């Protein structure tokens, strides 16, 4: 199962090791099978760079702890067209919705800017808790 993980989930996992966010990232790291198959973190340069930028600004966190999750074989090289996601208020969040849509992946996020317009996005958007429950994590 292909997923795109928003930066807020990486932050939550770093501060709450028992959280749904942490369980999701652990399942990606371990290649653990879920109800929909092994979890694969799909990424592109824009989403990886945004994740790195956010994590490096938080003293207790850092990108090094999650860098291994960004596997080259899961890099999405196609077009994503975030400019078409104007229903997402925060421009920085548009790249995550665009990637999930282009890569046919589930977008995992706690961000209100992505959850609010979820019904009008061309991808599945779920909170970390809802996603973890659905796939049995």
TrEMBL record:
What parts of the sequence cross the membrane? none
Q: Entry's SUPFAM superfamilies?
A: PIN domain-like
Pfam families attached to this UniProt entry:
PIN_3
Q: Which residues form the PIN domain?
A: 2-112
Q: InterPro entries given for it?
A: PIN-like_dom_sf, PIN_dom, PIN_toxin-like
Signal sequence extent: none
State what protein this is by name.
Answer: PIN domain-containing protein
- The record lists the organism as Salinarimonas ramus
């Amino acid at each position: 199962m292909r997923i795109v993980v928003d930066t807020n989930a990486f932050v939550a996992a770093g501060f709450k090791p028992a959280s749904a966010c942490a369980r999701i990232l652990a399942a990606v790291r371990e290649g653990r099978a879920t109800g929909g198959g092994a979890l694969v973190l799909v990424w592109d340069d824009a989403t990886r760079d945004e994740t790195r930028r956010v994590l490096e600004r938080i003293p207790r966190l850092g990108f090094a702890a999650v860098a291994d999750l960004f596997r080259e074989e899961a890099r999405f090289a196609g077009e994503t067209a975030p400019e078409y996601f104007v229903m997402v208020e925060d421009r920085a969040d548009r790249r995550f919705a665009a990637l999930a849509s282009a890569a046919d992946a589930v977008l995992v996020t706690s961000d209100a800017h992505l959850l609010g317009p979820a019904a009008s996005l061309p991808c599945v958007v779920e909170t970390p808790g809802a996603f973890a429950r659905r796939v049995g994590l």
